[in-house]
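testing teh design pipeline on a random one, pls ignore if ur not involved
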């Protein structure tokens, strides 16, 4: 089972042949710029396509605090995305209140645990849209 840095490394080395398909769902790599360090950070995240965009969830397993990658993209929404061998720049944004129900449904169909994660925290778990900048 791939997790964390090992997941990122194998995904990058194999253009997603290892790591894209994971636990019955699909994973992309999101690279954000550290809001304090300016260094790039790459995180494997479950995703689904929605039109041209990719959608991810800032769940952190229902933790009371947002994941670091989400805090980073709030500071700088210009990110890099890798889906299998495809790499592209994107602008990250939090789904609007109007968009969220549809996108939350899309994501819970692929990873039902998101509903459980939401019950563990008082924070509203953000859904993030990664709009390609091609």
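output:
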């Amino acid at each position: 089972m791939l997790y964390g840095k090992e997941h990122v490394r194998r995904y990058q080395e194999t253009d997603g042949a290892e790591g894209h398909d994971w636990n019955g769902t699909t994973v992309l790599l999101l690279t954000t710029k550290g809001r304090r360090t300016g260094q790039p950070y790459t995180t494997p995240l479950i995703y689904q396509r929605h039109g041209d965009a990719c959608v991810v969830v800032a769940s952190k397993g229902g933790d009371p605090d947002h994941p670091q990658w989400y805090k980073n993209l709030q500071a700088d929404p210009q990110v890099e995305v890798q889906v299998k061998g495809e790499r592209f720049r994107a602008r990250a944004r939090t789904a609007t209140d109007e968009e969220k129900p549809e996108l939350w449904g899309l994501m819970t169909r692929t990873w039902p645990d998101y509903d459980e994660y939401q019950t563990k925290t008082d924070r509203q778990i953000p859904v993030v849209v990664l709009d390609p900048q091609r």
